[in-house]
Amino acid sequence: MQFLIWILAAFLLMLWSGAVWLGYTLSHLALTLPWDQATAALGQLQIPEILKPFVDPIVLIFADGSWTTWLQSFEPLMQWLGNLLKGSAGWLVAALPVITWVVWGMGALGLLALAAGGSAALWWWRKRSGAVMQGANASSAQTVQNLVKHPLLHQLRRKFMG
Question: Dihedral, CA atoms, 11, 115, 16, 108, nearest 10 degrees?
Fold first, then answer.
């Protein structure tokens, strides 16, 4: 069971790592690439024909190229955000890798702490339930000994066994 806890923790750590680094990559691209070039490049992406039966129909609606107009509607917002981050908060762009490492590290340590806590709780529960079972076995043995020593059983044994 502890093995499953650590496997789950490793899986969650992989998901966390992927999400943080994908966020870093997308924010870095949004801040460094010109928005019109990015939307043009995204508009040229095509879904392979073999994958189309497995893709959500909503995605297929956007896959015909109409989603580039939807992306271009965000251009003023992205330009404003890019100018804000590059101009008045330029240190934030430079600090983005450090901030990403810190956020990733805090999340990774949190996941590892949860896994260690779950593992310790399972160990404690097994230890406690094992002690209870040993106590139950001891009380069962005591009950059997009391039955063997019971006077009625002693009389029955003398009567039938000789």
Answer: -130
pTM of the predicted structure, to 2 decimals? 0.53
Q: How far apart are CA 57 and CA 55, in angstroms?
A: 6
Q: Which long-range contacts (CB under 8 A, 24 or more apart) does 105-114 make?
A: 107/16, 107/20, 108/13, 108/16, 108/17, 111/9, 111/12, 111/13, 111/16, 112/9, 112/13, 114/9
Residue 7 sits in which domain range?
2-161
- Rounded Cα distance between 86 and 100, Å, is 17
Asked if 87 and 79 count as a contact pair (C-beta separation under 8 A), the reply is no
Query: Per the structure, how many domains does the chain have?
Result: 1
pLDDT digits (tens, 9 = 90+) for 94-127: 788 898 999 999 999 999 999 999 999 998 988 8
User: If we measure between CA atoms, which residue out of 76, 89, 75, 86 comes closest to residue 37?
Assistant: 75
